[in-house]
Amino acid sequence: MILKRLACFWLLCVSVCCSYAHQQIDTAETQSRAVPSEKTSKYINPEGFTIGARFDITKAGANYYRKSVVNGTFEYYLLNLPLKPATYKTHFADGEEKSFDVQIGVLDLPLTPAGCHQSSGFIIRLRAEYLYNSKLYGRIHFNYINGFVCSYAKWAAGFRVNNTNNGWEHTAELDYGRENFKKYLDHVLKNTTVSSLSREMVKVNIRDVRPGDVLIQTGHNGHAVLILDALYNDVEKTVKLMLAQGFTPAQEMEILKNYEDDESPWFTVPLDSGDETMIRTPQWTFYVKDLRRFSN
Predict the structure, then answer these.
(1) First CA to last CA across the chain, in angstroms?
(2) Angle subtended at Cα 45 by Cα 85 and Cα 231, rounded to the nearest 5 degrees
(3) What's the maximum distance between 2 C-alpha atoms anywhere in the chain?
(4) What is the pLDDT of residue 29?
(5) For every residue of the chain, which 3-state class applies, written as one string?
């Protein structure tokens, strides 16, 4: 347990220090924002157990609204994701509670397999689950670190990856069942990173941002967060983004708290922002230029 807390503290310090060097974040300020808050958030409806029901958009400010979403879309899927109880805190894969208070909500999703649900892994998992549940099997494919594209349709047809030559071998029976899908997803999560995930995506203008988009930075200290919700303001020409992250060591996916805006679950971005406009989260700083969307 001590080693886990030290590891988590070290990783937070590394991310903050890297952000300070490249993104002008003050380390002491970031650590002070990670102090648990005792007050009950005015944004939370504790009786709501989905994202759409838990967070009260009337508290976001005047003129903010959610755009209507169509049943069956990725945006609809995200707004209806299940949440842990409002008082629940983020836990690591081994069951230990996370000591840094950066969350205002936690998705009610099991951590399987342990160690594979870091920032990119959770995003891949949610995208794959949505496509699988929608029976859009042909759109489920992910780039591996080595460039190999792993297609679920091939996997379900009985093919398995030959890591020696980055090819397929027909070794199993046709199977589109849930258990076989989970095996495919486990294999994908072990062979993907933030950098490989970025190759699934295309750049998005902040004016066109929507739930399901991703803020992503690649490289050795890369990180990614998923946009779960977006509130629009046509009067002030701004958008408020709800961001969720996994992290290292492997942990549950948490909805981030905006300490710079009354501990809100949304991060405000002007719609006329340039590429270098910062979006500061408790453990990372992104730029508008980091905004991406799945290409399929």
Answers:
(1) 41
(2) 110
(3) 59
(4) 35
(5) CHHHHHHHHHHHHHHHHHHHHHHCCCHHHHHHHCCCCCCCCCCECCCCCEHHHHECHHHCCCCCECCCCCCCCHHHHHHCCEECCCCCCCEECCCCECCCCCEEEEECCCCCCCCCCCHHHHHHHHHHHHHHHCCCHHHCEEECCCCCEEEHHHHHCCEEEECCCCEEEECCCCCCCHHHHHHHHHHHHCCCCHHHHHCCEEECCHHHCCCCCEEEECCCCCEEEEEEEEEEECCCCEEEEEEEECCCCCECCEEECECCCCCECCEEEECCCCCCCEEEECCEEEEHHHEEEECC
Low-confidence ranges of the chain (pLDDT < 50): 2-38
The pLDDT, as a whole number, for residue 24 is 31
Residue 6: the pLDDT is: 42
Which tens digits make up the pLDDT trace of 201-236?
Answer: 999 999 999 999 999 999 777 999 999 999 999 999
Return the domain boundaries, the chain. Answer: 2-112+207-294, 119-195
Alpha carbon dihedral 182, 184, 185, 191, in 10-degree steps, equals 150
Query: Any idea what the Cα angle at residue 250 is, between residues 114 and 16, rounded to 5°?
Result: 170
Residues 6 or more apart whose CB falls under 8 angstroms from that of 208 comprise none
pLDDT of res. 250: 87
Q: Which pLDDT belongs to residue 25?
A: 31
**pLDDT (0 to 100) of residue 62:** 96
Q: Give the burial class of 106: count Cβ atoms within 10 A of its Cβ; 0-12 exposed, 13-18 middle, 19 or more buried.
A: buried
Give the type of residue at 93: A
pLDDT at residue 271, rounded to an integer? 97
